[in-house]
């Protein structure tokens, strides 16, 4: 059937990219992921600086930092509602 009559066009099978291309893509993806994680870690460090912690003997984990931030925000909200 011709394409004009609603038939399907045959596609040429797609070839897998060359190994060198795949390696470059993987390196680029790894670099993007490193930048993303670095940015996330910087954000957590900044959050740790403003959230009060119980003791300064060790750095809070990401989970603990989020828990402390949530508690701190709740406490500040309640303080505002009291006035």
Automatic annotation (TrEMBL):
One Gene Ontology biological process: sensory organ precursor cell fate determination
Gene3D superfamilies per record: Helix-loop-helix DNA-binding domain
Pfam families linked: HLH
Key words, A-Z: Developmental protein, Differentiation, Neurogenesis, Nucleus, Transcription, Transcription regulation
Principal place of residence: nucleus
Ranges for domain BHLH: 24-76
One of the record's GO cellular component terms: nucleus
GO MF assignments: DNA-binding transcription factor activity, RNA polymerase II-specific; E-box binding; protein heterodimerization activity
Protein localization: Nucleus
Name assigned to this protein: BHLH domain-containing protein
Species per Swiss-Prot/TrEMBL record: Larinioides sclopetarius
Lineage: Eukaryota, Metazoa, Ecdysozoa, Arthropoda, Chelicerata
């Amino acid at each position: 059937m011709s394409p004009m009559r609603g038939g399907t066009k045959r596609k040429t099978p797609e070839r897998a990219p060359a190994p060198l291309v795949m390696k470059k893509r993987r390196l680029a993806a790894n670099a993007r992921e490193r930048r993303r994680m670095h940015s996330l870690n910087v954000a957590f460090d900044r959050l740790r600086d403003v959230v009060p912690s119980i003791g300064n003997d060790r750095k809070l984990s990401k989970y603990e930092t989020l828990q402390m931030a949530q508690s701190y925000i709740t406490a500040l909200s309640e303080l505002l509602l009291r006035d």
